[in-house]
Structure formats: structure tokens, C-alpha cells
Input
Amino acid sequence: QVQLVESGGGLVQPGGSLRLSCAASESVLRFNSMGWYRQAPGKQRELVAGITTGNVTNYADSGKGRFTISRDNAKNTVYLQMNSLKPEDTAVYFCYADRLVAWTRKEYWGQGTQVTVSS
Output
């Protein structure tokens, strides 16, 4: 069973930075893509950033220029560096991974880590 464990969330002031980590229980190269979603209270879960095994990245418009996703294959970990944080970035951040299993796309999710941006 694939496990994704997030860490790095917390309380930060507006303009501050956080780095989220997502440690996978197996090689990240076994996934087609990995990344981060977030969900704020009363809102739908939305994509924040993703990265493929070919290191192609994509970002939601809300995080472009502020967030950077990266991957350390040796540590089986994906990171999300978040700078210039805003109160509207407050949400639970979820790590995800997906791959094809018997030609069926399978998704895996972490338990989430809370990010609160407030003065």
C-alpha cells in the first residue's frame, strides 16, 4: 500500500515562507506524476502544483511566481516551497501521486497538512 506523508505545515505571517514535504513509501519514479492540492474551508479541493517523472511542472495561477515544486528521487520526497504567502493560501495541503495500474489510473493521497497564513 502506497503511503504519502506530508510535513512542514504550520502558522506563518503574511509574506512568510514554508516548505512542505511529501515522503513516499516507495520510489517517486514509480509514479506518473506527483504534486499538491489544497482545500480551504467551504471550498473545493484545487490543484496547487504538479511534477511529472520527466520533471515537467505545472502550477495553478494563484501560485505562479511564488511556489516551486521539486522532487528528490533519492529521498523519495516531493517538496513545495511557498514564498510570499497570503492569507488566501490558508488551507489543508494534500500530497498526491498517480500512476497506471493495469491501464487504470490510480491515485494516492496523503492525510494533509494545515497551512495557516495569518498575522
Remarks:
- The chain has a mean pLDDT of 96.
